[in-house]
Q: What sequence folds into this?
């Protein structure tokens, strides 16, 4: 018998002998899924890719996006039915262990939540925020599905728990692993062992941007528990709506409850709270089935199980599910009307600012002159003129990609050359963190199709190697006057050497020198030439295409005779 | 045996022993015109491993290059993610045979590595180099991160003053350069000299500062102990990658072995139908006294299997 759980002395556990320890199961499953997730994201080889694409495809954010794009009836729809259906029966089990972000928040949460110090919680603003977020996301998804809007699901892109956790893994935790790997490498060196170093090209702006977002989220949960899960997360709120009438749930036995309120202090989402007269109110919408309350209750008054007949009747009619326990009336609203309006005003001004930034970002992406000054560094093409960013092969074009990508960075993790890297402003604010082809960091490997293989939302469609070789994501441009062949008068050909399709070849120039010549019929926009070009201001570069085109594939002359062509030494 | 006799014999045997050691160089000089190892061996008409067996035997066996207990670094050209049939990368059969010879000669450790252009794990795997090297007991050393490279000053250079060089090149006792011969869009040919670009980190510096000059100057830092040019499948156009429609291959079933990197490349240029002078970096390297480009002054042994 445990003496204390999460700092609370427990006099006596009154659960039936042999009863399943639900909290323990939740911890083990959460840990297992989190470890698998981390391996899928940060591991290498086909096993990690298969694992990652499986795990990410049972996350609801990607599932909803895939349904919005591909319609009902597909595999994603089946996953949605299974998860939502089981939630309607058993409550938000998904949040208990399937959501990696939920597991981490559960760990980070304080042992005792501070009542009153919670953001949003249990106030009318909170309800506005929660349902407003879900409504916004749902409207965007529905609009995308019905009318094919090219609008990114703004809220989902930034608020989806899976995407958020993916970014934290890739952009914050991976650099940490890189450092540990480097230490291991130094130790191995002493023993003449070659420890392979991880390929990592530091991206400080993205690191700090994720640190800001991820860090504030960690501080939030460290301070106030799973406030994100209870009050912000669109997936969680939606699951809460589904599980509102769940047949299995946390229940309080009135005759065993002493109104001590310990359960309220350990509830990380605010599903349990104190009523006016000191009793306990239970909000089933917010319960993430962490089982903290069951473990903490000194009298065993809480249990997880089927609702009794009376409750069942009520749940079937979908009457007010909340606030039924102990015949308690909810506490008076914590905020005055003035305070409420103030919060609402701040919230709406935030939204206005957000959408203005989105619009500005869009303007930058499409090269509207007044917006360009913001983007000297990353958004401008090597020509000095605005250049559309290239999106990975299989994404079909910028708008489609931006409207489907949830910014989980799974493709970034598995890109072998590092060309796929998180964007900051390339797609505008609406596409914040969505991956972009950054040819300074790498080039798109001609024979590789990994990004489409792992992408869970269908933003990057899976392609066969043969199909991928026909996709033109951008077109090559050669600025002769910057080329070293002309400026230095030496041979170079770094671009032609690496071009996989001979879209860049060398033709005679003068003084026995050769100079690049381009052929955009063959160009796939892989950026090998731009990556290899030794001139600081690239003489050859890729201009992205808003909608991907088709490249011609010509068969190589790979015919080998059986016998040597010459049978004498030429010297 | 009394004491006097013992001492006499000691002196006699001692003198004989010392005399014998003194005579050895003389012996070598006397024997030289008769069976000196050739400057360059060219072999034709067999599988890559058979060609190597014959070639290295003509050079006096691997023990002439690798001593017991030494570490060996082998630098093939495995820059592209391509199967051996494409003729873009060193034949894995050859890599395997070289490693086996090194192991037989008593090498303590054998490393195979290349700073690849395509992503390194794919290259190591798809070219068959990793499987071949490991099967023969070599270590596949990584070269994809700047952590493996150290700054080295290139003595006597004009352009490539210093470079970040893979630590195996700086530390290994023996360096064996195993390029594949093929057409190259930049330099017209790539073989032994150009292959050493794959042991430095910053290749863009070469392209920016004078490609041929940098290629020619690098061996001033270290000349490979042995160069083995794989000319079994030769890409005659569309190189170095050979993935485009311009790629054309010839089956030549040849191999060129030499400790002289310039001589090896000069012979290789002939295989592609060039004169050594046509390839800019060959005369440049010859001017830097890194080797002899004039094939007529060399002792060449030609073997046809």
A:
């Amino acid at each position: 018998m445990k003496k204390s759980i999460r700092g609370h002395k427990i006099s006596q556990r009154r659960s039936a002998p042999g009863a399943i320890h639900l909290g323990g199961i939740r911890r083990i499953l959460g840990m297992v899924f989190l470890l698998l997730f981390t391996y899928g994201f940060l591991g290498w080889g086909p096993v990690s890719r298969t694992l990652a694409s499986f795990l990410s495809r049972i996350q609801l954010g990607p599932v909803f996006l895939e349904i919005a794009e591909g319609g009902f009836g597909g595999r994603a729809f089946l996953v949605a039915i299974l998860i939502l259906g089981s939630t309607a029966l058993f409550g938000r089990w998904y949040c208990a262990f399937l959501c990696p972000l939920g597991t981490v928040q559960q760990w980070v949460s304080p042992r005792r939540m501070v009542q009153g110090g919670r953001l949003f919680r249990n106030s009318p603003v909170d309800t506005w925020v929660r349902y407003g977020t879900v409504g916004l996301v749902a409207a965007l998804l529905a609009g995308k599905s019905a009318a094919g809007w090219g609008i990114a699901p703004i809220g989902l892109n930034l608020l989806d728990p899976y995407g958020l956790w993916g970014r934290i893994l890739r952009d914050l935790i991976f650099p940490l692993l890189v450092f540990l790997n480097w230490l291991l490498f130094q130790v191995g060196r002493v023993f003449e062992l070659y420890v392979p170093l991880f390929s990592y090209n530091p991206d400080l702006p993205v690191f700090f941007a994720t640190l800001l977002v991820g860090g504030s989220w960690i501080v939030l949960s460290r301070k106030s528990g799973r406030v994100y899960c209870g009050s912000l997360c669109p997936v969680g709120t939606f699951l809460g709506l589904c599980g509102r009438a769940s047949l299995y749930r946390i229940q309080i036995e009135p005759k065993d409850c002493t109104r001590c309120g310990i359960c309220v202090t350990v509830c990380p989402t605010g599903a349990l709270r104190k009523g006016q007269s000191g009793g306990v109110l239970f909000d089933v919408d917010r319960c993430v089935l962490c089982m903290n309350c069951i473990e903490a209750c000194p009298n065993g008054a809480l249990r997880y199980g089927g609702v009794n007949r009376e409750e069942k009747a009520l749940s079937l009619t979908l009457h007010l599910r909340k606030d039924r326990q102990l015949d308690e009336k909810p506490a008076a609203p914590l905020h005055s009307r003035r305070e409420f309006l103030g919060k609402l005003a701040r919230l709406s001004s935030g939204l206005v600012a957000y959408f203005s930034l989105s619009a500005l970002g869009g303007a930058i992406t499409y090269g509207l002159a007044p917006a360009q000054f913001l983007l000297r560094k990353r958004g401008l093409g090597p020509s000095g003129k605005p250049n559309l960013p290239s999106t990975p092969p299989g994404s079909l074009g910028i708008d489609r990609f931006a409207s489907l990508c949830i910014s989980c960075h799974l493709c970034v993790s598995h890109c072998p050359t590092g060309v796929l890297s998180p964007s900051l402003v390339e797609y505008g604010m609406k596409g914040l963190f969505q991956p972009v082809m950054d040819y300074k960091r790498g080039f798109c490997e001609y024979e590789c199709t990994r990004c489409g293989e792992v992408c869970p939302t269908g933003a990057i469609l899976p392609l066969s190697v043969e199909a991928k070789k026909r996709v033109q994501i951008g077109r090559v441009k050669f600025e002769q006057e910057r080329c070293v062949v002309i400026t230095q008068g030496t041979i170079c050909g770094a671009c032609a050497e690496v071009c996989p399709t001979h879209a860049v070849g060398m033709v005679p120039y003068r003084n026995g020198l050769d100079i690049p010549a381009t052929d955009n019929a063959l160009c796939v926009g892989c950026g090998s030439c731009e990556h290899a070009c030794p001139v600081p201001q690239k003489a050859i570069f890729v201009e992205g295409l808003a909608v991907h085109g088709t490249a011609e594939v010509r068969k190589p002359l790979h015919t080998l005779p059986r016998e040597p062509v010459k049978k004498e030494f030429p010297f | 045996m009394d004491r006097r006799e013992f001492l006499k014999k000691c002196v006699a045997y001692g003198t004989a022993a010392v005399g014998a050691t003194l005579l050895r160089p003389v012996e070598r000089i006397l024997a030289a015109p008769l069976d000196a190892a050739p400057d360059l061996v060219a072999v034709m008409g067999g599988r890559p491993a058979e060609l190597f067996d014959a070639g290295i035997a003509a050079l006096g066996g691997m023990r002439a290059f690798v001593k017991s207990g030494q570490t060996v670094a082998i630098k093939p050209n495995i820059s592209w993610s391509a199967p051996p049939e494409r003729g873009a990368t060193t034949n894995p059969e050859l890599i395997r045979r070289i490693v086996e010879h090194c192991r037989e000669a008593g090498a303590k450790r054998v490393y195979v590595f290349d700073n690849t252009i395509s992503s390194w794990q794919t290259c190591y795997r798809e070219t068959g180099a990793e499987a071949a090297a490991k099967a023969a007991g070599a270590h596949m050393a990584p070269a994809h991160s700047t952590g493996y490279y150290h700054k080295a000053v290139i003595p006597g250079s004009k352009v490539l003053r210093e470079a970040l060089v893979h630590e195996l090149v700086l530390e290994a006792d023996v360096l064996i350069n195993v390029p594949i011969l093929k057409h190259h869009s930049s330099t017209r040919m790539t073989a032994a000299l150009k292959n050493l670009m794959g042991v430095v980190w910053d290749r863009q510096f070469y392209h920016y500062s004078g490609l041929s000059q940098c290629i020619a100057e690098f061996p001033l830092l270290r000349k490979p102990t042995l160069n083995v040019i794989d000319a079994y499948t030769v890409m005659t156009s569309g190189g170095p990658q050979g993935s485009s429609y311009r790629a054309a291959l010839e089956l030549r079933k040849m191999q060129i072995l030499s400790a002289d990197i310039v001589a090896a490349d000069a012979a290789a240029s002939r295989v592609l139908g060039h004169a050594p002078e046509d390839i800019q970096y060959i005369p440049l390297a010859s001017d830097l006294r890194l080797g002899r480009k004039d094939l007529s002054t060399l002792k060449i042994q030609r073997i046809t299997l």
Summary: The longest helix of chain A spans residues 161-190. Chain A touches chain B through 53 residues (CB under 8 Å). Chain A has a mean pLDDT of 80.
